[in-house]
Amino acid sequence: MSKVLVSFDDALLRRIDRVASSRGLTRSAYLAQLAERDAARASGPGKTAAVQAALRNLDRLFADAPPGESTTAIRAARDAR
Length: 81
Prior knowledge:
This protein is mostly helical. It folds into 2 domains: 1-44, Arc Repressor Mutant, CATH 1.10.1220; 45-81, no CATH class. It has 4 helices and no strands. The longest helix has 17 residues, at 27-43. The radius of gyration is 24 Å and the shape is elongated. It starts with 9 loop residues before the first helix and ends with a helix.
């Protein structure tokens, strides 16, 4: 595990320590949770390469679909059988 040196305003550090303590966490554990949550938000669902590829595949599948509401297209396909 790596260690880093960061600087915080004294008042902010006291707030961080209070919140961490109230949650039964060390300062490091609390800051690690915050960083993990923020990093996950930055990449978030839908931003990974796999999800982007899946969305492109869906776009290709529906590229030739008739415009309009999907219910109308489904009924038309059903009635055509």
